[in-house]
């Protein structure tokens, strides 16, 4: 008789877990997924997927504006209610489809909140469930400022299901979520205010591109307030008033809290089994194992410096699948991680930044590909790349500002991670005209040749 109910238990069903669940089930393991919310987690249901779908309409308007007076006339408008209905029709069924896929693969699913009983057992949905190995992939949730009126603020999940667009929205914080959403609703016709405690936005991102985005936001009529600590949100008649410590008052219709995210650990009762964690997440070693044998963590719930992104969570999930299937015993080795901020235009980056390069012996090269390749960039003269090369002329870092930054950064990430030389790249024939081949031609003189 088997000692445990399952070989592997996954707490949470997002990207941090379900990739490994499928792989381990295919490898012959008995697998269970425990999920208290919608199957497939935040990104699939009320995060990245919903965000990028809504953003698509704003991106079309943004790119069309570049051709106003150059062949395009007339005005395009976003119908927010129709766009949201399209989002719901497209996104809402995804968790059901994935649940069907998981069940068809033979994965058991338990709907409930998991709480540790001992190092191999949790209680969920009114019963005890045990497993040889347990992987915690419970992710993060938005952090709401502990101020008077916090109940009047909304998080990103609320915003991404907003049926009607308010006339004025206020975003607390100038991080990725706030800037992306602010530009989206401004494109849809709303008035927007952003209030930030710090003196600037998007720390760690290429500074000159952040400044360009902030200026772009101001040009669009978005009000930006820095060095302002929000003290309260109060209801005044049918509207809301946001007040800061400096006395700034903003009258608005909808307030979005964009002040960071915190790990989902409280309900797990980790103290019962001695799993260590801090305010940034669960502590793990280089095999993603906690201080308790057979308990692992994956995805955004981990305390880590590497970017907490969906692709990172997927990478960790795939690693744990190989580890628990006995296909590897090696510690996890993260590659360079590309990231994108979906403002209009986009900012993307990977690897060594120019700020880091300033303290090292790296070559920093600016490539103004937008100005030189207007026919390939849909009339986007401000599009630009900042590239970092090491002493051997290998590409080791990149930042891109432009509408096609997500695709270009993926191409540059491949060059970095595979240490591709110009000779190796010349073995491929790329499509022309395209921004990829245009950027390649402009970085070629700086790249290691052989």
* pLDDT averaged over residues: 97
State which percent range the strand residues make up: 15-25%
Shape: globular
What Rg, in angstroms, do the CA atoms define? 24 Å
Structure characterization notes:
This protein is of the alpha/beta class. The protein is 30% helix and 24% strand. The chain has helices spanning 15-26, 41-46, 48-65, 80-91, 94-104, 156-159, 176-187, 207-219, 310-324, 354-357, 369-372, 405-417, 422-425, 435-443, and strands spanning 6-11, 31-35, 108-111, 115-118, 121-124, 127-136, 140-142, 168-172, 191-195, 223-225, 230-236, 239-244, 249-252, 254-257, 261-263, 277-278, 281-282, 295-297, 339-341, 346-351, 363-367, 384-389, 395-402. Strands 1, 2, 3, 4, 5, 6 and 18 form a 7-stranded mixed sheet that branches. The longest helix is centred in the first third of the chain and has 18 residues, at 48-65.
Top keywords for this entry?
seven-stranded mixed beta sheet, 450 residues, 30% helix, five-stranded antiparallel beta sheet, alpha/beta
Topology:
Elements (H helix, E strand, L loop, with lengths): L5 E6 L3 H12 L4 E5 L5 H6 L1 H18 L14 H12 L2 H11 L3 E4 L3 E4 L2 E4 L2 E10 L3 E3 L13 H4 L8 E5 L3 H12 L3 E5 L11 H13 L3 E3 L4 E7 L2 E6 L4 E4 L1 E4 L3 E3 L13 E2 L2 E2 L12 E3 L12 H15 L14 E3 L4 E6 L2 H4 L5 E5 L1 H4 L11 E6 L5 E8 L2 H13 L4 H4 L9 H9 L7
Parallel strand pairs: 1-2, 1-6, 2-3, 6-18, 8-9, 8-14, 9-10
Antiparallel strand pairs: 4-5, 5-6, 7-15, 11-12, 12-13, 16-17, 19-20, 20-23, 21-22, 22-23
